[in-house]
Design brief:
The protein has three domains: 120 residues, Alpha-Beta Complex (Glutamyl-tRNA Synthetase, domain 3); 74 residues, Orthogonal Bundle (Glutamyl-tRNA Synthetase, domain 2), CATH 1.10.1160; 140 residues, no CATH class. 50% of the residues lie in helices and 8% in strands. It is built from 23 helices and nine strands. Helix 5 packs across helix 6, helix 11 crosses helix 12 and helix 12 runs antiparallel to helix 20. The radius of gyration is 34 Å and the shape is elongated. This is Glutamate--tRNA ligase. One of its GO terms (biological process) is glutamyl-tRNA aminoacylation.
């Protein structure tokens, strides 16, 4: 947890690894302090020793269950005499320390988020603060810790509200000042169930490994149950610190939306200095086995072309493999391309192949963005096509896809990948020559007929388009 907090950039004023004057900061090192306060409660009559066995406690639970009542300690040892206590001690009977709860009355707090919260004491029963092995329980530890460390505000999830009652009673019995409590709503999954592993990643380290940035994560988590009163959604850490106020925290449950999280992270990712983004993507490509080396300008060129599609660093893998792949046959089996096919796509394919045979396409491919644009215009002029009727079919036939980065930039990067040999086989690079050979094999007489009968992409249907 400490590593996660440090990665997120959430620094603490004092605590583990940053000592102050109220340490030690690990509960395992504070046992003597807890025993001191437990003895104080025992001496004041706010706590007592309970010698009940596990069997006796189970019998109490069963009796309450039979009466349709919540389980509650029956107070057997609450009024025991000194002689009775000494007799059990002499026998070596294990015992716990129980906090003595009044049999009637209420406890109220003014929760910073939920307003007044009240509990009836007759539903609680005397509760354990020290186990029979001498170890203090959670509610006792945190009350002592918060008081001795002079904690002013306790902000936590609403599921801790029941614990607050016990902690307030301990504060009051010890004569210690209460902190201000605020209980925020839980973060729920999209189906409004409690967020769990079945909904995907649930730990900071998992999101880190997926390529999320600390600043993106802090930004998104801050917006789960809080806003600054504006429509703004992108904040730096300094902006969040300056704008945050408890009175803007909402009572309603927050819904964890992974798509929104990715979008916010993408805003932070693309706003990084380009040198930093180049370093991150280059490391990812090399580590994932797509890139044999980071030498030369390829990584920088690739990031420049692909960064508009990145939301998390790990997206860089799919973005690169998508760019160098050539799923033409699969795309031609999609109803999405019906309009392009119906507009005499065969004519454009033949024009492209003609320029490939003459060497014009290779020259444009190898000469950069400006020459590529000239080639596109030349192809369009030969068929009296322009605009969408020209650009969309060229994109489909050259890249195998109907969408992606600017095609001129994409083709230029594709050539650099091919010429440099920097990509490993795993990347799935399809060269220009391989693309044109596959394009030549398309049986255009079957394409329109096949598309008319398709409801979804299918490898079997794709195979039927070529012979």
């Amino acid at each position: 947890m400490l590593k996660d907090l440090m990665w997120l950039g959430l620094e603490w004023d004092e605590g583990p690894n940053k000592d102050g004057n109220v340490g030690p900061y690990r509960q395992s090192e504070r046992t003597d302090l807890y025993l001191k306060y437990a003895e104080r409660l025992l001496a004041s009559g706010h706590a007592y020793k309970c010698f009940c066995s596990d069997e006796e406690l189970e019998a109490m639970r069963e009796e309450a269950k039979a009466k349709n009542l919540p389980p509650k300690y029956n107070g057997k040892w609450a009024k025991a005499s000194n002689d009775e206590i000494e007799a059990e001690l002499a026998k070596g009977t294990p015992y716990t320390y129980r906090f003595r709860v009044a049999e009637e009355g209420n406890v109220k707090i003014n929760d910073l988020i939920r307003g007044e919260v009240s509990w009836a004491l007759d539903t609680l029963g005397d509760f354990i603060i020290l186990r029979s092995n001498g170890q203090p329980v959670y509610n006792f530890c945190v009350a002592v810790d918060d008081a001795t460390m002079k904690i002013s505000h306790v902000l936590r999830a609403e599921e801790h509200l029941p614990n607050t009652l016990r902690q307030v009673l301990i504060y009051q019995a010890l004569g210690l000042p209460l902190p201000k409590f605020g209980h925020v709503s839980l973060i729920l999954a999209p189906d409004r169930s409690k967020l769990s592993k079945r909904h995907g990643a649930t730990s900071v380290s998992q999101f880190k490994d997926m390529g999320f940035l600390p600043q993106g994560m802090v930004n998104y988590l801050a917006l789960l149950g809080w806003n600054d009163g504006t429509e703004d959604e992108i904040f730096t850490m300094d902006q969040l610190i300056a704008k945050f106020s408890i009175d803007r925290i909402t009572k309603s449950a927050a819904i964890f939306d992974n798509m929104k999280f990715r979008w916010i992270n993408g805003q932070h990712l693309r706003s990084l200095p380009e040198t930093e983004l180049i370093q991150m993507c280059g490391e990812f490509w090399e580590k994932s086995g797509l890139l044999s080396s980071r030498e030369g300008s390829f990584v920088e060129d690739a990031v420049h072309v692909l960064k508009g599609s990145l939301e998390v660093v790990s997206d860089a893998g799919k973005c690169l493999t998508d760019l160098v792949s050539y799923p033409l046959e699969e795309s031609l089996c999609s109803l999405e391309v019906k309009e392009i096919v119906d507009d005499n796509l065969k004519e454009v394919a033949n024009a492209i192949l003609a320029t490939y045979d003459t060497g014009e396409l290779q020259k444009a491919y190898e000469s950069g963005h400006e020459e590529w644009q000239k080639w596109v215009k030349s192809v369009g002029k030969s068929m009296k096509r322009k605009g969408k009727r020209l650009f969309m079919p060229i994109r489909l036939l050259v890249t195998g896809k109907t969408f992606g980065p600017d095609i001129g930039s994409a083709v230029e990067l594709l050539y650099k990948a091919e010429a440099s040999g920097i990509l490993n086989t795993k990347a799935g690079l399809v060269t220009l020559a391989e693309r044109m050979e596959r394009l030549k094999k398309i049986n255009w007489d079957n394409v329109s007929e096949k598309i008319a009968s398709l409801n979804a992409k299918s490898p079997e249907n794709a195979a039927a388009l070529i012979h």
